[in-house]
Amino acid sequence: MQIKQILAEAAVGSEITVKGWVRTKRVQPNVIFININDGSVIHNIQAVAEPGIINEDTLKLITTGSCIAVTGTLIESKGSGQRVEIEVKSVSVYGTADPDKYPLQPKKHSLEFLREIAHLRPRTNTFSAILRIRHTLAYAIHKYFNDNGFFYLHTPIITGSDAEGAGEMFRVSTLDPKNPPLNEDGTINYKEDFFGKETNLTVSGQLEGELGAMALSKIYTFGPTFRAENSNTARHLAEFWMIEPEVAFYELEDNMALAEDFTKYVIRYALENCADDLAFLENRLKDEEKSKKADERSELDLIQKLKFVVDNEYVKLTYTEAIQILLSSKRHKEGKFQYPVEWGIDLQSEHERYLVEKHFKKPVILTNYPKDIKAFYMKLDDDGKTVRAMDVLFPGIGEIIGGSQREDSYEKLLQRSKDVGIHEETIWWYLETRQFGSAPHSGFGIGFERLVMFVTGMGNIRDVIPFPRTPKSAEF
Ligand code: 4AD
Ligand code: MG
């Protein structure tokens, strides 16, 4: 039986077996306490043994990190905190953990240290809580879309197109890098490759997602995406998971409403289903906050912050309006933004965070960005200068969602792809959807790890994915 089930429903007096990893052992003259965790829940179960029940040799092997099975009777706990504990009848040891070598001792370890032992960190309270919340959010995402008539579309990982047109791709090739076949002009001849052309790992499933929406009306993708951008920040990974709904007949306003409803639903789902893990992470954060300067401390606790997002309407404004707010801010006037503000700039994280954390103090949906800073597939506004783009900005995170209404006119899309240097032959299939039964459609992408960061309150994206891939780190 898993510890979660035992704590919730097992009857006092019943005989049970618990299998898990030892967190702590305390040997007293008249009694031995062993705390066991199996990852099913944040709580440990305490096993209580009278001396003599566990023989001396076995007792020595039971150390922090070892894996054991305990059989005994479930009794009411005499101590506070837990309803029940196990009165031990027998113990067997699956695997020992040499105390001189096992790196996770029962004390607080820094997140930096734990990143170096990504193979063991899921055994800590913090990481097991994050991984359970991550799972629950993934489940809530599928549930939301399924309940709302969306179909899960599996888009390819290996692709010939660069959906975002930003050139940040990992190449996929079977050619010998030391001796590749060459064309007459000295460039690599990808025609001799396995795929017969240049291919890369996908940066986004959107373009294929659009093909799905133009047949099934409402689809979503949920898969790994890859960006070879050399950004060593707390919000970027080289491999991250993205969820991308795409809906036929949706205009930008419908897309915004979907983004708001969807994010509120999954956050609410986590609040309702991960209460113990969230309470644990909230306490952890409170400790962390104490070491910060008073003016840097968060005004709200983690759970209050999540409830605030769920209960309040997101602010909606255009990029142009946002620029006006930034231009009239004290921070701009005092020259305190690192990147100067003017219409046309790609908003930097400092600008986004100013808007969300200082000005509005709420999630913000920014729309109608200048076309030159956005991808080629976004629908041009009537002014010819801006596109029907939307970014959703969250407190503490910045951009969590990027999306848009898509260009549905064949001529305009062809022109835009030419303008940005995308060759027609690489996206002929995408262009064709605008020739055969084109329709208005919209969608967005939400970075799964950024969502998990927001819900768990973690400050570094490397701590919300089991095995982070960042520049120069992909050990496991
Ligand atoms: O804004 P992005 O680049 O948009 C797209 O890829 C569109 N094709 C989405 C769509 O319309 N279907 O990325 C979408 C989101 C960002 O808002 C961010 O949350 C996340 O993906 N993201 C990253 N997360 C972690 N590490 C990175 N390097 C990320 N790059 C983007
Ligand atoms: Mg973006």
* CATH topological fold name of the largest domain: BirA Bifunctional Protein, domain 2
First and last CA, distance = 30 Å
Question: Any idea what the CATH superfamily of the largest domain is called?
Answer: Bira Bifunctional Protein, Domain 2
* CATH class designation of the largest domain: Alpha Beta
Q: Count structural domains.
A: 2
Bound molecules: 4-amino-1,4-dioxobutan-2-aminium adenosine-5'-monophosphate, magnesium ion
Structural class: alpha+beta
Residue-averaged pLDDT: 94
Q: Biggest sheet, strands in spatial order? A: 6-10-11-16-15-14-13-12
Unreliable segments of 5+ consecutive residues: none
Helices, by number, come to 14
Radius of gyration: 27 Å
Shape category: globular
Q: In words, what does this structure look like?
A:
Homodimer. Belongs to the class-II aminoacyl-tRNA synthetase family. There is one protein chain. The protein is α+β, with helices and mostly antiparallel strands and 476 residues long. It folds into two domains: 3-107, Nucleic acid-binding proteins (OB fold (Dihydrolipoamide Acetyltransferase, E2P)), CATH 2.40.50; 123-168 and 203-463, Bira Bifunctional Protein, Domain 2 (BirA Bifunctional Protein, domain 2, 2-Layer Sandwich), CATH 3.30.930.10. It has 14 helices and 16 strands. The protein has helices spanning 3-9, 56-61, 111-116, 125-147, 206-216, 252-273, 275-290, 302-311, 319-327, 330-333, 349-360, 410-419, 428-432, 448-456; strands at residues 15-27, 32-37, 45-49, 67-76, 84-95, 151-152, 158-159, 171-172, 199-201, 218-226, 239-248, 315-318, 364-367, 389-394, 398-405, 441-447. The strands form three sheets. An eight-stranded mixed β-sheet has the order 6-10-11-16-15-14-13-12. Strand 1 (15-27) and strand 2 form a beta hairpin. Helix 6 (252-273) runs antiparallel to helix 8 (302-311). The two termini are 30 Å apart. The mean pLDDT is 94. Magnesium ion binds next to strand 15.
